[in-house]
Amino acid sequence: MTQTTDLADALLLRRMARGDEDAFAEVYRQKHPAIYRFALHMTGNPAMAEDVTQEVFMALIRDPKRFDPARGTLGGFLFGVARNHLRKRWEQDRRLVAFDGDPDDLRENASVVGSFQRGASGNGAHGNGNGHGSFATATSWDEFTSVETIGRVRRAVATLPENYRVVVVLCELEELSYEEAASALRCPVGTVRSRLHRARAMLVEKLREAHSVGRASAVSE
Amino acid sequence: MDCVRFEKIVHDLERPGTEGFAFREDALAHAESCSHCAPLMTGAESLDAALRALAASNREQQAPPRVGTALIEKFRRQRAASSRRRVQRQIVALSAAAAILLALGFSLYRRTTSGPGVAPVTNVTEKISAPPVASPTVVPEASPVTAAAESLQQNQILASQSEDSAYATTFVPLPYADDPSALDDGAVVRVEMPRAALASFGLPVAAMESDGTVRADLIVSADGTPQAIRLVSQDNSSRSF
Description:
The complex is a heterodimer of chains A (221) and B (241).
Chain A: H1 3-17, H2 21-43, H3 46-62, H4 74-92, H5 98-101, H6 104-107, H7 110-113, H8 116-121, H9 124-128, H10 141-144, H11 147-158, H12 162-173, H13 178-185, H14 189-220
Chain B: H1 3-9, H2 19-22, H3 24-33, H4 37-58, H5 65-114, H6 118-127, H7 146-150, E1 157-158, E2 166-168, E3 172-173, H8 182-185, E4 187-194, E5 213-220, E6 226-234
Antiparallel strand pairs in B: 1-4, 2-6, 3-6, 4-5, 5-6
Helix pairs in contact in B: 3-4
């Protein structure tokens, strides 16, 4: 995000704090799609994503001065608020954290993501990537963009533990830099980098297994 | 490049600004020649492609319009509420300021009505640093003010010790005053004298009643000669408290 954008955001927020409705509408128009997508990737639930988006901007309406430009970008700030709301929701509703560690919830997805237990317990591509080959070895770009493959990737992301999922969503899907993600998550850049590497290794493993399962079921049919 | 370093940067090869991006060519060359790292490279590239596809598929997603509409409505309500709060705060601030001003005004009014002449006398006496002077009876007989001094009443007190409520005029140098320094360091003596005696100080008394007495503060020099005079008038009728 450029300094020009930061300055424009700061000006919009200042106008918004003075009660300028157009400024708020502009902030919402610019920022809400990323927040909604973030919440959607994190929850897999459109209704929940709507709620979180609404809560994030309500927080901004209530206290626009909470955002400190010295501590990061407005986008990063809003992602951070969104993540805090998500965590509160997860604490209130334990069903939503099932993806983080309950294998029972994953069995229904076994045909596409493979075994979560095996994928999560391994060390990803770093540790055992030489025995399976790549999940992409027999695929083309068309396959990657197919609805089925995108669904596999989405589910694989959704099965990551929250700490890993959030960095994948921010750095890979929303294309934030490590620094922006660190600002949003209030953690060191090194933590973001190491979590992302670990998350990617886990994703490679999950997708490889899902790919193997998919090929096996296609052969048996 | 060795395998350890390759594994460290393999997931950053497509990320500008990172070490992996800077050493991308070296990493690619290593992957081509290393059977251990080649699958890692392929896996990372496949993952990049898959994640890009997922991001692209979601790029147009956004919250339904009803969310924005509801937020705009809440923004308006919040603005109205904060506007009301601001007005309330202003009213409270104005009320507080008015109360303070009223209290100050009332305090000043009480001070003015309860001790109207104290301040001028006190101010003058504070400037006078000389000790109380001798009684006017020590004034030499040759002095032009002897007659007036003799007519002074017995109740002479220092003005600085007086607690009378009095209105005082400013000191007027007497026509025969010969010691200007006394105005700064002379003693102030409050006297009560016949009005007619004012004439002996060279003051006009034609328009004044000749009977009765009048209070006055005299500045007297070290030798007891009056140098300046100011009239002090008692106004007990103004005391209402």
